[in-house]
Amino acid sequence: MKKILSAPMAGFTNFAFRELLRFFGGVDVIETEMVSARSFVELELRSFDYPSRLWGVCGESGVTVQIWDNSSDTLSEFAGRLVNDFHVSGIDLNFGCPARQIAGKSASGSYLLRFPERIGDIVSCVVKSAAGIPVTAKIRLGCTLDTINAIDVAQAVEAAQADGIIVHGRTAAEMYRGNANWNEIAKIKPKLKKINLYGNGDIKTVNDAIEKLQNYPVDGIMIGRAALAKPWIFSQIKAATQKLQIPKDPSNAELNRIIKIHYELLKKQLNTQSAINQLRKHICHYTANKTNSRQLRNNICKTNNINEIFNIIDNFLKNE
User: Fold this and answer.
1) Positive or negative: CA dihedral 104, 108, 109, 114
2) What's the CATH number where 23 sits?
3) The pLDDT of residue 47
4) How far apart are the first and last CA of the chain?
5) Which candidate, 167, 254, 246, 165, places its Cα nearest to that of 205?
6) pLDDT at position 49, please?
7) Are 235 and 265 contained in the same domain?
8) 54, 90: one domain
9) Cα separation, 199 vs 197, whole angstroms
10) Which residues make Cβ contacts (< 8 Å) with residue 53, sequence separation at least 6?
11) 125 is known as an active-site residue
12) Considering Cα of 307, then 310, then 314, then 320, what sign does the dihedral take?
């Protein structure tokens, strides 16, 4: 059975969103936001609290934590703590983030794609520290279109005894421009002997997901941005893969209830103002394809009163 993974997304895949994904179901692997291994180690040394992106992870069922850094020692130390103290279900190593702060200033993420052997060494150290917990690596096709080397990187990851590799079908230089190249992803599978290959990029609908699963030699797919608007998309894809009736999108009344549930989940971690700020972002995604959604965004940004925001949403969805 091919797996469906939810992608780590900074600022979104926090505890509340992960709980929503579990509520709707259909996700085989749920990932956290990307967590800095160095930040964890440094905060602990200073006797500060853990990074906020780890909130809720301890005791959370079936969660994979995505981590980043360029030091095998730091990453392996962090991995060991995640396994022993947080009891995570998996660890995903980020070698694909193209953000300047990560790939430039910190020489991590997609910067490391230049050095497949170094990636292999990092993965090997983390696998040993993970002590049997699945370890995956998320990469891009390469740094630039002229230096695509995903096969070399994937083989290094496999040699390091990882359980799988997730490949986003763009180069780091492309960021999120253009289209994900699934043909390049497909070229990797014949070069691997045993680890799983997961494809990622431009899966926006159930049909997109089924097309990728049927037409490309992948062991599963990872979905990111599409889930922000439709966290229920995983259950729809799972039903489609099992030849079952595909659940309908929520009605406006159901979406209204989902938004309120989302807010209550956010409040478990955040103070009222922070929860409202976070909810606004999600409301914009939930309603992006609806008429007058721009006016809705303007209206909910004019107040910090959650009851007023709920009234605005109520009226908006009733009149859609």
Assistant:
1) positive
2) 3.20.20.70
3) 56
4) 39
5) 246
6) 65
7) no
8) yes
9) 7
10) 14, 32, 33, 34, 35
11) no
12) positive
- Phi-psi category of residue 57: left, alpha or beta, with phi > 0 → left and psi -120 to 50 → alpha: alpha
Indicate the residue among 190, 221, 241 that finishes a domain: 241
Which tokens hold the place of 49? 């609290």
Q: Taking a C-beta distance cutoff of 8 angstroms, is the pair 66, 35 a contact?
A: yes
Residue 246 falls inside a structural domain: no
For 142-162, what is each residue's pLDDT tens digit?
A: 999 999 999 999 999 999 999
| 232-269 burial: b if 16+ Cβ within 10 Å, else e | bbbbbbbbbbeeeeeeeebebeebbebbeebbebbbee
Catalytic residue among 97, 125, 143, 301: 97
- Confidence grade of residue 26 (pLDDT, cut at 50, 70, 90): very high
Q: For the chain, give me the number of helices (H) and strands (E)?
A: 13, 9
pLDDT the model gives residue 61: 86
In the numeric block, the tokens 């964890």 are attached to 40
Q: Tell me if 216 sits within 8 A of 199, measured CB to CB.
A: yes
Long-range contacts of 41-48, Cβ-Cβ distance < 8 Å, separation of 24 or more: 41/74, 41/77, 41/78
Q: Bridge-partner residues for 221, per DSSP? A: 4, 199
Residue in the block written with tokens 């070698």: 95
- Residue 279 phi, psi (nearest 5): -60, -40
Q: Are residues 146 and 284 in the same domain?
A: no
The domain in which residue 127 lies consists of: 3-241
Q: Give the tens place of pLDDT for each residue, 245-292.
A: 999 999 999 999 999 999 999 999 999 999 999 999 999 999 998 998
Within-domain flag for 247: no
Give the domain-ending residue among 179, 209, 241.
Answer: 241
Apex 237 CA angle, 139 and 292, nearest 5: 90
CA proximity to 140, closest of 165, 105, 106: 165
Nearest to 287 by CA among 306, 312, 261, 305: 312
Q: Tell if the pTM clears 0.85, that is, is over it.
A: yes
